């Protein structure tokens, strides 16, 4: 999963960005990109309730279809809920060139949205007194570089300085050459640790999937259970989420029904800026001479706690509202979690923001998820009671965009009345 993140946080990928510029396609590969700027401009940054435009379903439908066609997306799903009404639409098909229509109940890989699950589990363990936010990581993982200076908070907020293993040529080349490989957590951490820390802990923001892999291992250590079981017991069962899971590292399948996922080019070709394919390949794709590569059965274990999750639009719309409204944490810790969200660029207060396993774009708290073949966005505005989920079964686009985030940003701009 390429790494993904806040609306433009590029977060998980390989495509390796598992969605903030990706922050270099990173936020997980990240989520903070130009789209985030659009989102922030579309949403008001103040805390007072914002005026919402009436939902024009025809215009929104046309917009989704136009964007999807322009980005060569085979299929997409949108669920938008507001006090002024709802807009739900499905576009295209579950397969490239196929006939089976998309649906809100289809399973897909949700990439870095998985990080919000892990962050919530860790905060529950904090709430229970099993660990402290200021505990050094070395207390639980003595092998971590700078582990005596990196805290649990640094891991949650992407401020540890640990190198992001998903940006390495080793991972991206292996994903292209051995897509079915089952990655162990030890292998993922070894790829990170072979590089020196990117910065001193707490001195900067740096989206890194390494952080969330460590949090997943710590959660297992504390609860004494596999991470998939912990997430099921602590999150999915209480919320009644029947179609969400963290797959075993040896599994490269999705539960039925599901959408297949596609990507033009390779992970190595889209590793570095500008993340787009060569102009000749883009032209061939638009002319139908170049078909996308099927990424459905690529083993997502390279993302594990940072981005291997599977869910549906129906489950995500429930999850993101529970995440932001604090249904699984006490009021005090939930308030601190939302307050932890800080601009990823300290010189620009209007940049996308990130906190304890949660991102913010404008007034929408949530996350993005991106890995080869799938892109998802989920966000909830607690002030105006707006909830939005978008997914596409293509990622990235031929010109380097995150298609679901692009659609989400455009819909948000249509929804909110611009501030004066």
Map the helices and strands.
Layout: H1 34-42, H2 57-70, E1 75-82, E2 85-92, E3 108-111, H3 114-127, H4 152-156, H5 169-177, H6 185-193, H7 209-223, H8 227-239, E4 262-263, H9 279-286, E5 293-294, E6 309-311, H10 313-325, H11 331-339, E7 342-343, E8 353-354, E9 359-361, E10 364-371, E11 374-381, E12 386-392, H12 403-415
Antiparallel strand pairs: 1-2, 1-12, 3-6, 4-5, 7-8, 8-9, 9-10, 10-11, 11-12
Helix pairs in contact: 1-12, 2-12, 3-7, 3-8, 6-7
Structure description:
With 420 residues, the chain is an alpha+beta fold. It contains twelve helices and twelve strands. The protein has helices at residues 34-42, 57-70, 114-127, 152-156, 169-177, 185-193, 209-223, 227-239, 279-286, 313-325, 331-339, 403-415, and strands at 75-82, 85-92, 108-111, 262-263, 293-294, 309-311, 342-343, 353-354, 359-361, 364-371, 374-381, 386-392. The strands form three sheets. It has an eight-stranded antiparallel beta sheet with strand order 2-1-12-11-10-9-8-7, with helices on both faces. A two-stranded antiparallel sheet has the order 3-6. Strand 8 and strand 9 form a beta hairpin. Helix 1 (34-42) packs parallel to helix 12, helix 2 packs antiparallel against helix 12 (403-415) and helix 3 (114-127) packs across helix 8 (227-239).
């Amino acid at each position: 999963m390429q790494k993904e993140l806040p609306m433009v946080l590029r977060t998980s990928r390989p495509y390796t960005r598992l969605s903030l510029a990706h922050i270099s396609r990173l936020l997980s590969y990240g989520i903070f990109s130009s789209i985030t700027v659009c989102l922030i401009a579309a949403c008001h940054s103040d805390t007072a309730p914002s005026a919402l435009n009436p939902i024009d379903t025809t215009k929104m439908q046309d917009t989704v279809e136009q964007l999807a066609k322009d980005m060569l997306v085979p299929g997409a799903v949108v669920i938008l809920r507001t006090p002024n009404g709802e807009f739900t639409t499905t576009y295209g098909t579950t397969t490239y060139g196929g006939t089976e229509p998309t649906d809100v109940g289809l399973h897909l890989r949700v990439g870095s949205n998985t990080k919000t699950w892990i962050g919530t589990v860790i905060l529950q363990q904090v709430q229970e007194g099993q660990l402290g936010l200021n505990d050094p990581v070395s207390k639980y993982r003595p092998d971590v570089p700078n582990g005596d200076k990196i805290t649990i908070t640094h891991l949650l907020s992407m401020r540890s300085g640990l190198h992001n293993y998903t940006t390495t040529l080793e991972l991206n080349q292996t994903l292209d050459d051995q897509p079915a490989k089952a990655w162990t957590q030890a292998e993922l951490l070894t790829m990170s640790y072979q590089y020196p820390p990117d910065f001193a802990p707490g001195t900067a923001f740096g989206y890194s999937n390494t952080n969330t892999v460590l949090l997943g291992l710590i959660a297992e250590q504390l609860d004494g259970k596999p991470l998939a079981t912990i997430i099921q017991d602590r999150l999915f069962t209480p919320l009644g989420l029947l179609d969400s899971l963290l797959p075993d590292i040896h599994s490269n399948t999705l539960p039925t029904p599901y959408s297949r996922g596609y990507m033009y080019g390779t992970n190595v070709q889209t590793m570095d800026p500008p993340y787009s394919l060569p102009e000749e390949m883009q032209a061939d794709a638009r002319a139908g001479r170049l078909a996308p590569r099927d990424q459905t059965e690529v083993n997502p274990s390279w993302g594990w706690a940072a981005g291997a999750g599977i869910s549906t639009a129906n489950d995500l719309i429930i999850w993101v509202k529970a995440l932001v409204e604090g249904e699984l944490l006490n009021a005090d810790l939930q308030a601190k979690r939302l307050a932890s969200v800080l601009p990823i660029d300290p010189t620009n207060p209007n940049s996308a923001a990130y906190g304890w396993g949660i991102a913010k774009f404008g007034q929408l708290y949530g996350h993005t998820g991106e890995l080869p073949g799938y892109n998802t966005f989920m966000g909830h505005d607690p002030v105006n009671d707006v909830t939005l989920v978008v997914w596409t079964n293509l990622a990235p686009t031929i010109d380097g965009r995150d298609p679901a985030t692009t659609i989400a940003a455009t819909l948000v701009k249509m929804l909110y009345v611009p501030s004066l």
